[in-house]
């Protein structure tokens, strides 16, 4: 009999990631398979759901072939959200998945938003965040309008994690937190779903994160293993970065930056997503549009591998030689929720080279995070001294230092880079009763490797430049 172990899987934007851990939290194996984002036309950003399942099955196969999984207790899956798959009655995808980066549904979102006033938004969602192009109902309304034949054949509209759980187990369910701006408590907001025909029928039933949705089907790797419902990436990453109690904050750095503070106090603040309470946790969240995505873009632009950008940026110092960068390459989410904004460099002179450009992009992403954290601190009535940072973008020491300096508070970095995948495994442990509670699992599984303190010598530089960052956005908005 093998030692008891758990598998966590993250269907991210850029890759399928997986880990195999023992129940002491020790990493036994990990897996990564890149994913392709297809942009067939303006404002479209799509993925093939079959690629997600290929990654999931490949991870399970690799773990099973290299390890004794006779003690495998459970599998947890997390994923990007506001990414939607329209499936037929046989479970097959009828269209490429419409990802969270896709803004084609903006017109349908505006039509829906016109039917919902600010008071209803506050009642339903706790804060006045309008229906946007990534909202599930915007996607349903768009497909019903543009592809009525597909809509007629649709049986379910699912998030990536829920699609993969369905393909693995045959069970269809989700959770109330991942049903972003659709649910209140443990159920859907009925009046909201009434705005789109068939919405009630197409969305999955809601369960707890750690509820065992089903067991891996016969003929698949790890057949018979329990699979839990899982949580969205922000919440799985929150648990996986050790953020669990009121006043604690997270900074997840992936394709986008996902920022959050836990607080029972809610001061309704434009641009902040306040999730409904879950196990006495109230998460105030602010996802930006572009973090690692901006670094990947400048990497391609400069023909420099992403790993080399940190070394380039480390050879620069804060100062007038560093241009100002607005990282709105695909618009911006929190806190301004402006899909029409676009990126820009300002203050470029002839001395600017690859190193200055790399640092400029890292600073620009840090300023986006600062703007979002300002709104979060107002929403939660919390003044931050520290946030726990995780994700692929947290592996760069120079970028972590730039962020700490720009934010003005410390960043404590997790030892496991992908906190979301650890959080997924942690929830599998709770669901299969390998660990007694989420709090116990966090204590046992989450570890840190370094804390980045803000350097007071650079405070004036970042304060002044952040003010110019906001001014640049406002000045450019009428002409972009």
UniProtKB/TrEMBL annotation:
<dbReference type="InterPro" id="IPR050406">
    <property type="entry name" value="FGGY_Carb_Kinase"/>
</dbReference>
<dbReference type="GO" id="GO:0016301">
    <property type="term" value="F:kinase activity"/>
</dbReference>
<feature type="domain" description="Carbohydrate kinase FGGY N-terminal">
    <location>
        <begin position="6"/>
        <end position="240"/>
    </location>
</feature>
<keyword id="KW-0859">Xylose metabolism</keyword>
<keyword id="KW-0418">Kinase</keyword>
<dbReference type="InterPro" id="IPR000577">
    <property type="entry name" value="Carb_kinase_FGGY"/>
</dbReference>
<comment type="similarity">
    <text>Belongs to the FGGY kinase family.</text>
</comment>
<feature type="domain" description="Carbohydrate kinase FGGY C-terminal">
    <location>
        <begin position="250"/>
        <end position="430"/>
    </location>
</feature>
<dbReference type="GO" id="GO:0042732">
    <property type="term" value="P:D-xylose metabolic process"/>
</dbReference>
<dbReference type="InterPro" id="IPR018484">
    <property type="entry name" value="FGGY_N"/>
</dbReference>
<protein>
    <recommendedName>
        <fullName>Carbohydrate kinase</fullName>
    </recommendedName>
</protein>
<keyword id="KW-0119">Carbohydrate metabolism</keyword>
<dbReference type="InterPro" id="IPR018485">
    <property type="entry name" value="FGGY_C"/>
</dbReference>
<keyword id="KW-0808">Transferase</keyword>
<dbReference type="Pfam" id="PF02782">
    <property type="entry name" value="FGGY_C"/>
</dbReference>
<dbReference type="Pfam" id="PF00370">
    <property type="entry name" value="FGGY_N"/>
</dbReference>
<dbReference type="InterPro" id="IPR043129">
    <property type="entry name" value="ATPase_NBD"/>
</dbReference>
